[in-house]
Design goal:
The protein is an alpha+beta fold and 223 residues long. It is 28% helix and 23% strand. It contains six helices and eight strands; from the N terminus they run βααβββαβαβααββ. The strands form two sheets. Strands 1-2-3-4-5 form a five-stranded mixed beta sheet, with helices on both faces. A three-stranded antiparallel beta sheet has the order 6-7-8, with helices on one face. The two termini are 26 Å apart.
């Protein structure tokens, strides 16, 4: 186990692809994501004599710790690599009790997270809509859905219990086509805040350089 370097980002992307079941190469924006984790969080890798076999990433933020990624090459799964990567992240970050991650479809991962005290709390949905305009239709009577500036999103999200750090807002704004949205009810109270990503095709090939710098990327892929 070791800390990742810039030259590992494409190999991390390849591991993700091997576990995703996607028929095409991954979107190039994954390199942006892994660089964001490398620069603002903790990214560690596991390797064998033949190259990388897994990676894990966390985003320590004030008062909380988020496990962002944990992927193991399918040929190496169920051998303890995932647990060792997770232990490495915990040893480096020394997180407090506020730990979170998103759900996994792999029961082995769910069991691992549960043993760390990250129990199921709430459902998370990925919502997709097709629309000719920026929004699919009018809000309920008396409600308002408005676009807001990115620097207003963190305090708006906090009003509905979502804590998102400035570093992560800046990452979304710089790398994805995001619209920041405020939903206000009839009484003028913010009841929802969202970062809406407008669809683009996935990039159909990996960047040619291992460093994954913006100049090396092809198109404007999104995760």
């Amino acid at each position: 186990m070791r800390r990742a370097q810039s030259g590992d980002l494409l190999a991390c992307t390849a591991i993700w692809r091997s576990t995703s079941g996607e028929p095409s190469p991954p979107p190039a924006a994954l390199c942006f994501l892994y660089r964001h984790e490398l620069e603002t969080g903790t990214l560690v890798v596991a390797e064998s004599d033949h190259g990388l076999i897994g990676f894990g990433a966390s985003l320590p933020r004030p008062g909380r710790w988020f496990l962002a990624d944990l992927f193991i090459d399918p040929a190496t799964q169920s051998t303890g690599v995932g647990r060792r990567l997770l232990d490495a992240l915990l040893a480096i970050d020394q997180p407090g009790p506020a730990r979170a991650t998103l759900a996994s479809g792999d029961p082995r991962a769910v069991s691992l997270y549960t043993r760390l005290g990250m129990t199921r709390r709430c459902p998370v949905f990925y919502l997709t809509a097709r629309s000719a305009g920026r929004f699919p239709g009018p809000p309920p009577s008396g409600w308002a859905v408005t676009e807001v500036a990115g620097d207003r999103f963190s305090p708006l999200a906090a009003e509905v219990g979502l804590r998102i750090d400035r570093l992560d807002v800046e990452y979304l704004a710089a790398n994805l086509d995001v619209t920041w949205v405020d939903v206000v009810d009839q009484g003028g109270r913010t009841v929802a805040a969202a970062a809406v990503r407008w669809g683009h095709p996935f990039v159909a090939s990996d960047p040619p350089a291992s460093d994954c710098t913006p100049a090396d990327l092809i198109g404007n892929g999104v995760r």
